[in-house]
Amino acid sequence: MSEESLPFNEKVLPIKILKEEWERSIKNPEKFWAEKAKTIDWVKTWDKVLDDSDSPFYRWFVGGILNISYNALDRHLKTPKKNMLAYIWEGEPGEVKTYTFYQLYREVNKLAKIFKNFGLKKGDRVAVYLPMILELPITLLATARIGGIHTVVFSGFSADALAGRINDCEAKILVTSDGAYRRGKTVQLKETADRALENTPTIQKVIVVKRTRQDVSMKGGRDYWYHDLMTEVEPNVYVQPEPMEATEPLFILYTSGTTGKPKGVQHSTGGYLVWAYWTLKWAFDPDERDIWWCTADIGWITGHTYNVYAPLALGITSFIFEGTPDYPAQDRWWDIVEHHGITILYTTPTAIRMFMKFGEDWVNKHDLSTLRLLGSVGEPINPEAWRWYYRVIGKEKLPIIDTWWQTETGGFMIAPLAGLELVQLKPGSATYPLPSVLAEVYDEKGQPTAIGKRGVLVIKTSWPGMLETLWKDPERYKQAYFGRFPNVYYTGDYAVKDPDGYLWLLGRADEVLKVAGHRIGTVELESELVSHPAISEAAVMGKEDPIKGEVPVAFVVLRSGFSPSEELRANIVKHIRNTIGPIATPEAIVIVNKLPKTRSGKIMRRLLKAVLSGAALGDVSTLEDEASIEEVKATYDELKRQLEKK
Ligand code: WTA
Fold first, then answer.
1. Which of 641, 642, 557 is nearest to 594 (CA)?
2. Which of 82, 289, 332, 472 is packed most tightly, with the most Cβ within 10 A?
3. Which residues of 233-255 are buried (b: 16+ CB within 10 A; e: fewer)?
């Protein structure tokens, strides 16, 4: 490795431990990870730490045998952690529930037994469609205990989206709830699940958690109440944790890409757990004194890794909240921090920007002195939001750990590491890569960009938490992540390296949007839009939004016989809510006569982008090669008029 590729600028950074760890991990990954993996309990240790003989498919801890639910629960029972709180949970209506590691272990064993009674076997898939209640982590752990593979579908997704995911992985069991609370109202979850279940032939049993107590229909022989099943099994039942190969899958999590249907990101058991454990330890170093609050929903990767596996494996107390930040009042979160004594808060820039809008008074009503670290994830944090977070929440004392990573990476990849050695922070930069991560910024040709010049972020190494493949689609895995540049992992993000070697993440370089931190593919939106009977063509673009980062805006062309109306727009919005889910609701539906295209028929996305950002067209010659400048200008003006009308 050449000197240039070292990420640390020693002239400006008097850092030592971090640099040494990073160098060791790059020079000899096998030795490095053999040491680190000892913090996990193995039934049998690995034969080989890293097998890259079939790259880009990397296999970590080959031959190693373990169970992740054992690592999250059983192993703590031999220590004083047994009676420590694993979870403190607060429901939206305000009730509080806690589980010690021992109590959680009991619940997980009971549900694992129920799964076994239903005939669930190693390798079978369990779909999960639940709000943020403790039955959610219990379901994941029970699935992992018997060697099943879970796939969680965020509760903001629609029946169609749920069915699509269930069918893709051929899940046998669905765990859902009667409903969910949302701002004092109840949402019908079972009803949505029932619509999905009309088209999911592989589902044999449905387990329904009673949460909102609304009336739901229960189909005999298929649907069972969770609480009934749980009281029918022995309270002290013990289910032997299934010995799992480190490389056997733990879960599938569907996420948006640039083409076609969502991708089923497949994570391993061993490598994923080791990465989850170490990334949390390095970045935040939580211990028994902490109450860790990661505000992400377990429907997303952040919740999987940092609300379930990493904190449980480390044996720390996590706080989980069911509700929304502004209900019943805009200080709900600060009330929680004060009331429960939260010590580490890990959240999104969207949340921070929302609190900025609510105003400091809501925060200042509360004593936040228990906080010792702050974190950020999901989207680039703009310097204004960073400074506000630092000043108003952190009282200019607490470091902000901005963590860049992806569903595919399993855990943090670029972040300041408070638990290893904290570098000087810069507002808006995620700073340096973690050990084992050799990150580089490439230009279009696959050459490292000059310092200060924007390019795309790639990773030149493999790391234990890396996805194994896409579920039953290895070709797409190769194409999506290794198709752009040979032998390097393509992240799809823009980035720039500054003269001090700090990395600044600048948002997606592809057709993926981050709306309030949620990952949404414009391609998925477009294909659902054209499935609406009135629409013949559609293009979806992200429009900058002061709170959510960006929001989707749809440009659509109507089929003949349809004319624009408010009613039609509302109907199109409803269609998207039904096919993808409320989280993908477009901010605006702009009806146009035609979409701007090049002569070869490609939609001129840059023009649409320029219209949305309100940017002047500028240098049209660089915009799109083949189209006539006059036509581009005319289309731009027309679109702008339409958008303003909206
Ligand atoms: C974006 C979420 C800037 C990025 C963990 C990435 C970020 C995508 C950051 C993955 C950050 C995540 N700074 N951008 N700290 N964290 N992103 O799969 O565009 O839902 O590619 O995983 O979120 O989103 P995903």
1. 557
2. 332
3. beeeeebebbebbbbbbbbbbbb
Q: Write the CB contacts of 34 (distance below 8 Å, at least 6 apart in sequence).
A: 46, 49
| Alpha carbon distance 113, 316 (integer Å) | 26
Q: How do residues 278-289 score in pLDDT, each as one tens digit? A: 999 999 999 999
Residue nearest to atom 25 of ligand 1 (CA): 406
Q: Are 162 and 129 in contact (CB under 8 A)?
A: yes
Is 164 within 8 Å of 86 (Cβ atoms)? no
Q: How do residues 159-216 score in pLDDT, each as one tens digit?
A: 999 999 999 999 999 999 999 999 999 999 999 999 999 999 999 999 999 999 999 9
Dmax over CA atoms of the chain, in Å, equals 76
Residue spans of the chain under pLDDT 70: 1-6, 10-12, 618-633, 642, 646
435/439 Cα distance (integer angstroms)? 10
Distance CA 73, CA 68 (A): 9
- Nearest-atom index, ligand 1, CA of 408: 18
For atom 12 of ligand 1, which residue has the closest CA?
378
Burial class (CB in 10 A: 0-12, 13-18, 19+), 98: middle
Nearest CA among 528, 526, 558, 557 for reference residue 540: 526
Q: Which stretches of 433-565 are assigned E, i.e. beta strand?
A: 439-442, 455-459, 469-470, 489-497, 503-508, 512-515, 518-521, 535-545, 549-558
Rounded to the nearest angstrom, the distance between the alpha carbon of 507 and the centre of ligand 1 is 8
Cα atoms in the 13 Å half-sphere on the side-chain side of 77: 11
Whole-number Å distance, alpha carbon 425 to ligand 1 midpoint, is 19
Q: Quick one: DSSP state of residue 449?
A: P
> What is the pTM assigned to this prediction?
0.95
User: For residues 421 and 416, what is the distance between their CA atoms, to the nearest angstrom?
Assistant: 8
